[in-house]
Design goal:
Elements (H helix, E strand, L loop, with lengths): L1 H6 L5 E4 L2 H7 L3 E4 L14 H20 L6 E2 L1
Parallel strand pairs: 1-2, 2-3
Length: 75
Amino acid sequence: MVKEIERAGFPVVHMCTVVPISLTVGANRIIPTVAIPYPLGNPAMNLTDEKELRRKLVKKALKALETPITEQTVF
C-alpha cells in the first residue's frame, strides 16, 4: 500500500520494527521503531519517558516526509 500511495503523489513514511521487510516491499522512507508488540512505545518506561520516545519517533517521521530522496532510505 505504501508504494501505491506514493505513486499517487503523497510521500509516505513506513514506521516498522523489521527494516528488511520494509526494504523488500519497497517502502521508500523507513523509520525503525521499538519492538514488534509495541512499535511506538515501551510499556516498561515511565509515562514521561515513553511520551518522549513517541515524540522523537513522530518528529523523525515528519522530518523524513520533508526529506527529498531518490532511493530507499532508512532514517
